[in-house]
Design goal:
Number of strands: 13
Family: Belongs to the krueppel C2H2-type zinc-finger protein family.
Largest sheet: 3 strands, antiparallel
Distance between the termini: 60 Å
Strand order of the largest sheet: 1-8-9
Strand content: 5-15%
Radius of gyration: 22 Å
Number of helices: 6
Helix content: 40-55%
Order of helices and strands: EEEHEEHEEHEEHEEHEEH
Oligomer: single chain
Domain C2H2-type: 13-40, 41-68, 69-96, 97-124, 125-152
GO cellular component, one term: nucleus
Function: May be involved in transcriptional regulation.
InterPro entries: Znf_C2H2_sf, Znf_C2H2_type, ZnFinger_BTB_dom_contain
Length: 187
Protein backbone atom coordinates (compact mmCIF):
# COMPACT_ATOMS: atom_id res chain seq x y z
CA UNK A 1 0.00 0.00 0.00
CA UNK A 2 2.84 2.39 0.71
CA UNK A 3 6.33 2.34 -0.65
CA UNK A 4 9.55 4.15 -0.09
CA UNK A 5 11.06 5.99 -3.05
CA UNK A 6 14.66 5.76 -1.86
CA UNK A 7 16.26 2.35 -1.35
CA UNK A 8 14.07 0.45 1.10
CA UNK A 9 15.93 -1.01 4.06
CA UNK A 10 15.39 -4.74 4.58
CA UNK A 11 13.75 -5.78 7.84
CA UNK A 12 14.87 -9.36 8.52
CA UNK A 13 14.05 -9.38 12.26
CA UNK A 14 10.43 -10.14 13.15
CA UNK A 15 8.70 -10.02 16.52
CA UNK A 16 7.01 -13.35 17.33
CA UNK A 17 4.35 -11.58 19.41
CA UNK A 18 2.97 -9.03 16.94
CA UNK A 19 4.83 -9.77 13.66
CA UNK A 20 6.45 -6.33 13.57
CA UNK A 21 9.44 -6.35 11.20
CA UNK A 22 12.63 -4.52 12.20
CA UNK A 23 15.89 -3.78 10.43
CA UNK A 24 18.34 -4.51 13.26
CA UNK A 25 18.58 -7.10 16.01
CA UNK A 26 19.03 -4.46 18.72
CA UNK A 27 15.81 -2.80 17.51
CA UNK A 28 14.03 -6.14 17.91
CA UNK A 29 15.36 -6.50 21.46
CA UNK A 30 14.16 -2.99 22.30
CA UNK A 31 10.78 -3.72 20.71
CA UNK A 32 10.38 -6.98 22.64
CA UNK A 33 10.75 -5.05 25.89
CA UNK A 34 7.54 -3.16 25.05
CA UNK A 35 5.67 -6.45 25.45
CA UNK A 36 6.99 -6.99 28.98
CA UNK A 37 4.20 -7.10 31.54
CA UNK A 38 6.41 -5.37 34.10
CA UNK A 39 7.02 -1.71 33.33
CA UNK A 40 9.25 -0.35 36.04
CA UNK A 41 9.96 3.27 35.04
CA UNK A 42 7.21 5.66 36.17
CA UNK A 43 6.88 9.39 35.52
CA UNK A 44 6.70 11.36 38.78
CA UNK A 45 4.54 14.03 37.12
CA UNK A 46 1.75 12.07 35.38
CA UNK A 47 2.50 8.53 36.64
CA UNK A 48 2.70 7.08 33.13
CA UNK A 49 4.79 3.89 33.22
CA UNK A 50 7.50 2.90 30.73
CA UNK A 51 9.35 -0.33 30.04
CA UNK A 52 12.69 1.41 29.53
CA UNK A 53 14.52 4.23 31.28
CA UNK A 54 15.32 5.90 27.93
CA UNK A 55 11.59 6.12 27.11
CA UNK A 56 10.92 7.75 30.48
CA UNK A 57 13.76 10.22 29.93
CA UNK A 58 12.33 11.13 26.54
CA UNK A 59 8.81 11.43 28.02
CA UNK A 60 10.00 13.74 30.82
CA UNK A 61 10.89 16.37 28.21
CA UNK A 62 7.16 16.73 27.45
CA UNK A 63 6.69 18.07 30.98
CA UNK A 64 9.84 20.22 31.14
CA UNK A 65 9.40 21.64 27.63
CA UNK A 66 13.12 20.91 27.14
CA UNK A 67 14.03 20.91 23.45
CA UNK A 68 17.71 20.01 23.11
CA UNK A 69 17.63 19.14 19.39
CA UNK A 70 17.95 22.32 17.30
CA UNK A 71 17.79 22.69 13.53
CA UNK A 72 20.99 24.28 12.20
CA UNK A 73 19.07 25.89 9.35
CA UNK A 74 16.11 27.62 11.04
CA UNK A 75 16.84 27.19 14.78
CA UNK A 76 13.54 25.39 15.42
CA UNK A 77 13.95 23.20 18.52
CA UNK A 78 12.60 19.71 19.18
CA UNK A 79 12.31 17.46 22.22
CA UNK A 80 13.08 14.34 20.17
CA UNK A 81 15.98 13.67 17.80
CA UNK A 82 13.66 11.80 15.41
CA UNK A 83 11.41 14.87 15.16
CA UNK A 84 14.42 17.01 14.21
CA UNK A 85 15.43 14.46 11.57
CA UNK A 86 11.93 14.49 10.10
CA UNK A 87 11.91 18.31 10.18
CA UNK A 88 15.20 18.49 8.24
CA UNK A 89 13.42 16.94 5.25
CA UNK A 90 11.27 20.09 5.01
CA UNK A 91 14.42 22.05 4.14
CA UNK A 92 15.67 19.57 1.54
CA UNK A 93 12.20 19.18 0.01
CA UNK A 94 12.91 15.43 -0.04
CA UNK A 95 9.73 13.34 0.02
CA UNK A 96 10.79 9.70 0.36
CA UNK A 97 7.37 8.28 1.31
CA UNK A 98 4.99 7.69 -1.58
CA UNK A 99 1.34 6.62 -1.53
CA UNK A 100 0.97 3.39 -3.47
CA UNK A 101 -2.55 4.38 -4.53
CA UNK A 102 -2.27 7.93 -5.85
CA UNK A 103 1.54 8.41 -5.95
CA UNK A 104 1.44 11.53 -3.74
CA UNK A 105 4.76 11.84 -1.88
CA UNK A 106 5.43 12.95 1.69
CA UNK A 107 8.47 13.91 3.73
CA UNK A 108 7.28 11.99 6.81
CA UNK A 109 5.93 8.46 7.22
CA UNK A 110 3.33 9.67 9.74
CA UNK A 111 1.95 12.10 7.16
CA UNK A 112 1.68 9.29 4.60
CA UNK A 113 -0.17 7.11 7.12
CA UNK A 114 -2.59 9.96 7.82
CA UNK A 115 -3.05 10.47 4.07
CA UNK A 116 -3.86 6.77 3.55
CA UNK A 117 -7.02 7.24 5.64
CA UNK A 118 -8.43 9.22 2.69
CA UNK A 119 -8.30 6.09 0.54
CA UNK A 120 -9.56 3.62 3.15
CA UNK A 121 -12.33 5.88 4.46
CA UNK A 122 -11.40 4.59 7.91
CA UNK A 123 -12.74 6.90 10.63
CA UNK A 124 -11.48 5.73 14.02
CA UNK A 125 -12.25 8.91 16.00
CA UNK A 126 -15.81 9.26 17.32
CA UNK A 127 -17.45 12.19 19.11
CA UNK A 128 -18.78 11.10 22.52
CA UNK A 129 -21.51 13.74 22.34
CA UNK A 130 -23.13 13.20 18.92
CA UNK A 131 -21.36 10.05 17.61
CA UNK A 132 -20.05 11.81 14.48
CA UNK A 133 -16.90 10.05 13.23
CA UNK A 134 -13.64 11.46 11.87
CA UNK A 135 -10.60 10.06 10.12
CA UNK A 136 -8.19 12.43 11.90
CA UNK A 137 -7.91 13.24 15.61
CA UNK A 138 -7.42 17.02 15.05
CA UNK A 139 -10.71 17.09 13.13
CA UNK A 140 -12.48 15.48 16.09
CA UNK A 141 -10.84 17.96 18.47
CA UNK A 142 -11.99 20.88 16.30
CA UNK A 143 -15.49 19.38 16.12
CA UNK A 144 -15.69 19.01 19.92
CA UNK A 145 -15.39 22.80 20.21
CA UNK A 146 -18.80 23.08 18.49
CA UNK A 147 -20.33 21.41 21.54
CA UNK A 148 -18.45 23.52 24.10
CA UNK A 149 -18.34 26.85 22.18
CA UNK A 150 -14.65 26.97 23.07
CA UNK A 151 -12.69 29.55 21.07
CA UNK A 152 -9.07 29.07 22.14
CA UNK A 153 -7.40 31.37 19.61
CA UNK A 154 -7.53 34.98 20.84
CA UNK A 155 -6.38 37.92 18.72
CA UNK A 156 -4.08 40.34 20.59
CA UNK A 157 -5.14 43.21 18.33
CA UNK A 158 -8.95 43.09 18.22
CA UNK A 159 -9.60 40.88 21.29
CA UNK A 160 -11.84 38.53 19.28
CA UNK A 161 -11.68 34.86 20.14
CA UNK A 162 -11.61 32.40 17.28
CA UNK A 163 -12.52 28.75 17.05
CA UNK A 164 -9.93 28.05 14.35
CA UNK A 165 -6.30 29.16 14.15
CA UNK A 166 -6.95 30.08 10.48
CA UNK A 167 -9.57 32.60 11.65
CA UNK A 168 -7.03 34.09 14.04
CA UNK A 169 -4.51 34.43 11.21
CA UNK A 170 -7.13 36.14 9.03
CA UNK A 171 -7.93 38.53 11.88
CA UNK A 172 -4.26 39.43 12.30
CA UNK A 173 -3.90 39.92 8.53
CA UNK A 174 -6.88 42.31 8.52
CA UNK A 175 -5.38 44.34 11.37
CA UNK A 176 -2.06 44.57 9.52
CA UNK A 177 -3.87 45.56 6.29
CA UNK A 178 -5.80 48.33 8.09
CA UNK A 179 -2.60 49.63 9.75
CA UNK A 180 -0.88 49.83 6.35
CA UNK A 181 -3.96 51.54 4.84
CA UNK A 182 -4.02 54.14 7.64
CA UNK A 183 -0.31 54.90 7.27
CA UNK A 184 -0.68 55.14 3.48
CA UNK A 185 -3.63 57.53 3.87
CA UNK A 186 -1.55 59.81 6.11
CA UNK A 187 1.32 60.05 3.60
Amino acid sequence: MCSRISNAMEKPYTCDLDSKALSQQNHLITHLMTHKKEKSFACDVCHKVFSQKSYLKSHLRTHSKEKPFVCDICNKAFSEKTNLQAHLLTHTKEKPYECGICSKAFSQLATLKRHLLIHTEEKPFECDVCNKIFSLKPNLQRHLRTHTNEKPFACDFCWNSNELVQSLNESISLVNFHDVAEVTALV
